[in-house]
Input
Amino acid sequence: MSVIAKNLQASYAFVERNANLVKRYWTWEVVWLVYSIADCLAVSFIGLGMESLAGADANVDGRYLVLYLLIGTLVWRYLSSIFYWITEVVSIERWEGTIEYTLMAPIRRIVHMFGQTIFAVFYSLFFTGVILAATTLIFDLDLSKANLFGGTMILISGCLSFIGISVMASVLPLLFPERGAQMTHIVIAVLLLVSGVYYPVDVLPDWLQRFSAFSPATYVLTGSRRALLEGAALAELWQYIWPVLIMGAIAIPAGLWIFDQAEKYAKRAGKLARNG
Output
């Protein structure tokens, strides 16, 4: 068997392990799915609420606001799901009591992370698709003019940079066993603030708008809205795709290097088996 085939087989082992975890804790997955659908609906209903509060004379298009908020919520749910699955790579090993065996095993970390990432991407796509189907039925949305292919390309391109950011953030549970997993929330919270998930970034103060240019979610959200709300062609969406591809090309190698350095330190400091 070739080296590539062996590495792919090893990566698939982590995909299969995560799939088995989902099956084992399927009740939690159902709870999280119901919560996510309810949360998405609650945010989207704000659009109709604004139309109602503004009154008939204000000429507020509630259906447009629903779509605007729905796209933002779904895209963010997809990206944040990838983020949490990857940042929990260490936490999962601690839960299962296998962290020492996994991190001390003769396997390259990129192989380990590749399996974790592949599962995160496909799980997030499926999870987000189920939420989209549920919300589409409830709101009776018309997506006939949407460029679904272009929107999908934006999501796939954007997930690469989020993978790199997630690998960087995954060192926090490794370095801080006590509260490292909770510390990753600050990363996702800052991205949520500056990326325009629920509002245009133009409404942010000037100093925050500068940070939005460095968030891959900003480009993914803007591009997805143009593809789904305006039906923008793929050529028009390229201006949002190339920045996140460059961010991904930088963030993924940087994340792997940072994780490698953190792993070496954790092994020297005896932090692998610690839970607190």
Q: What stands out?
A: Residues 3-269 form one domain.
